[in-house]
Amino acid sequence: MDHRLLEIIACPVCNGKLALNKEQQQLICKVDGLAYSIRDGIPVLLESEAHKLTLDEEGS
Ligand SMILES: [Zn+2]
Question: Which residues surround ligand 1, an ion (CB under 5 A)?
Answer without folding.
Answer: 11, 13-14, 16, 29, 31-32
